[in-house]
Design brief:
By secondary structure, the protein is mainly alpha-helical. The chain is built from 20 helices and 5 strands. Strand 3 and strand 4 form a beta hairpin.
């Protein structure tokens, strides 16, 4: 409605102006050389207006012709942009639907229409990954990594692929480049920690991890590889304080303390660890400086004071008592260990040794040995280290599982040793 009123007003103004021009008196004469032109004022005014309008339209037409190539290019680019955006959308839908062929086709179309932008390169890479075409995945990722504005995207994809094919050296290099491209990324910190674990760089993994459950294992591992004695002692202390029940952490700390001549602190650490989670490795280290069999018995009694009713405490006392010739006490401690819940092969094997040493020459002694050996065959496997994440058995403790790479996942127990028994038997026979 407003436009209609404006048009009417403009038409009325033009009519009034034309009327006024028609009423103007006089004539206009123009001499150009020998040419003389004379016209009434209204006609001259209309002629000038017509000339101005013609010149204006001519200039506008020339401007349109001058801008025509650029305008056509802009329209073509806009059309390609619209078609490219549609191709990007269709590629995303295909990726979400798991349609590899459609994803590859639409990603290729998006690159053709929009060029190699970060979005189209990433789409092409993901489409190639979905189709299992690693040759189509790596190229776009390398192109992304070469761009300043999207380097992190490319490096992250390349890092993921390197880790998938377990190329840990290349993955570590890519992780460093990604950190430089986008410092402080939380995801990257986690990936770098996993890579450090895979490369057995325990100190680096310790600095990167935020998982309290991993710190004891990683600190113990770092202490074992640290050449600086002061730094190694500090790392071992961190490991023990993080988890006093982790025997390898206690042993790492005790080892560094003994090297520093702090034997009283060694005893305190091992007694505390035994009170939390007894293991024979703790006892071996505790008794190592002692030579006399009877002195080892007395020292073992002091150690088990922190956990006297545990089966491992009775087993330890049985071992040292047998070594001291105290077969009666050793047999008693074996019985107590069994009452406390131990039914492992090592217990009945020890009992067979006790019977051989105590009554080996008699018929009664030989019968007792046979009975103990039958129990060895029927008993559960000896305790050992196994991964709580994947179940992989380990002959010795490590800061991370050799199977799945999970740090701090190794646990001591009978379940893990079931996998170790065949390997141990094969090693004994070989």
């Amino acid at each position: 409605m407003a436009r209609l009123i404006l048009a009417v007003l403009l038409a009325a103004a033009a009519l009034v102006l034309t009327w006024q021009l028609a009423l103007l008196p006089g004539t206009v004469a123009v001499d150009i050389g020998e040419l003389s032109v004379e016209a009434p004022v209204p006609v001259a005014a209309l002629g000038l207006l017509a000339l101005f309008a013609s010149l204006y339209l001519l200039l506008r037409g020339l401007g349109v012709l001058h801008r025509a190539p650029r305008t056509l290019r802009a329209r073509k680019a806009a059309r390609h942009r619209a078609q490219g955006d549609q191709a990007v959308t269709r590629a995303l839908v295909a990726l979400a639907a798991g349609d590899a062929n459609a994803a590859r086709r639409e990603a290729a179309g998006a690159r053709r229409l929009l060029g190699d932008t970060p979005q189209t390169l990433l789409l092409a890479s993901e489409a190639g990954r979905l189709a299992g075409r690693m040759d189509e995945t790596e190229g776009p990722l390398l192109a992304l990594a070469a761009r300043k504005d999207a380097a992190f995207l490319g490096l992250r994809g390349l890092l993921r692929d390197a880790m998938a094919r377990q190329d840990w050296e290349a993955a570590a290099d890519l992780a460093r480049k990604a950190e430089a491209a986008h410092p402080g990324a939380a995801w990257l910190r986690t990936e770098r920690a996993q890579l450090a674990v895979r490369n057995a760089a325990w100190g680096e993994a310790l600095a990167l991890t935020g998982d309290a459950g991993m710190k004891a294992a990683l600190a113990a591992g770092a202490a074992g590889t640290e050449s600086n004695s002061s730094r190694a002692l500090d790392l071992a202390r961190q490991a023990f304080e993080a988890d006093p029940a982790l025997a390898p952490a206690a042993l790492a700390y005790a080892t560094r303390l003994r090297a520093a001549g702090r034997e009283r602190r060694v005893e305190a650490v091992l007694r505390q660890a035994w009170g939390r989670a007894p293991q024979q490795a703790l006892a071996e280290f505790y008794l190592a400086p002692l030579d006399g069999a009877l002195s080892r018995v007395q020292a073992a009694k002091r150690l088990v004071e922190t956990n006297p009713v545990h089966a491992e405490s009775h087993f330890l006392l049985a071992r040292v008592s047998l070594a001291a010739g105290l077969t009666g006490e050793a047999r008693h401690q074996v019985q107590e260990a069994h009452k406390a819940g131990m039914n492992e092969r090592r217990l009945w094997s020890l009992l067979a040794d006790i019977e051989e040493q105590d009554r080996g020459g008699s018929e009664e002694g030989r019968a007792a040995q046979r009975d103990a050996l039958r129990k060895v065959a029927e008993a559960t496997a000896d305790a050992g280290w196994s991964c709580s994440a994947c179940g992989t058995a380990h002959a010795a403790w490590r800061p991370a599982c050799a199977g799945c790479g999970t740090a701090g996942a190794l646990r001591w127990g009978v379940a893990g040793a079931a996998h170790l028994a065949p390997a141990r038997e094969a090693a004994r026979l070989s």
